[in-house]
Design goal:
Length: 324
Amino acid sequence: MARHVDILQHPETAIAEASATLADGLPIGLPTETVYGLAADATNPAAITRIYETKGRPRFNPLICHMSDLAMAERYAIFDPISRKLAEAFWPGPLTLVLPLRPGSDIHPLATAGLDTVGIRVPQGFAGELIRAFGRPLAAPSANTSGKISATSADHVHDDLGERISLILDAGASVVGVESTIVKVEEGEMRLLRPGGLAAEEIERVAGQPLKRKNGASPAIEAPGMLASHYAPGAAVRLDATAVSPGEALIRFGRPDIAGAENAAIVLDLSPSGDLAEAAANLFDFMKRADGSGAAIIAFSSIPDEGLGEAINDRLRRAAAPRE
Ligand code: TXA
Ligand code: MG
């Protein structure tokens, strides 16, 4: 059963215990500003294998490698001018850049799934301090069983993976609430591989050029693990609801009038004032609460597809996708 260490009350204990556990090649539950990660030494193949075993992930996908700062990232990857500009503007923060691996880098091929590129991000706050103290990059997918809802609190991690890991660091609720935005620059053009906790509009403003969305068939090689059913609660998910049936759970946004709401099993509003950042921060916790109501269906009212709404709608479409 995992031990919990509160990083605000016991920061030194948290760094010491986390460093020792990581050095033993074991994954830990690590808070970041986006979601909680299941973090392990990105240079240690046994440690990376344990991430996959712990999540029950059926196949190896490239994992995001977390660094303490841009200087550390430059030791592992080669930056083009646009990527460097984005890193300088948004790191530490919810942006992942896919970059060519620097030859001789000791990031293990299991972390990159054998690709010649690496996804790198510099997280805010404690996670960055831990990486600085540990001295090596940490590979960290979200800390949840494969295909399930991502964890945005230490309790979520505990309920899902507490039996399978030995240490969970607790920093309270994740402030952003959805995973990082993933961008890859190719031949001077920016491509959005995953919408996330940094709005596409902000990236375009800093870069002074548009982010290309993928169109048509999903580029499986670019974003494996981003396909079909994902972020799935136990209940079925129904989108763009304007009415609910008795006993359905309702998750709405911005106090819309939804017919039948008075007979719903539970009614939650992601942001009564219509703030998309607040909605992103509440999303996964509310999905778990709606699921916990026992309703067979969770109905969502529509959410604007701008700013962080792009990431929220991406996760909702995956939650609603047909299950395998
Ligand atoms: O917010 C986040 O990004 C969280 C927290 C814990 O930091 N991490 C996270 O990591 O979501 P992970 O490993 O689950 O993200 C993996 C995604 C996959 O969709 C994968 O395809 C993409 O990142 N990715 C990683 N490396 C890549 C690469 N070299 N090329 C293309 N996509 C890559
Ligand atoms: Mg995940």
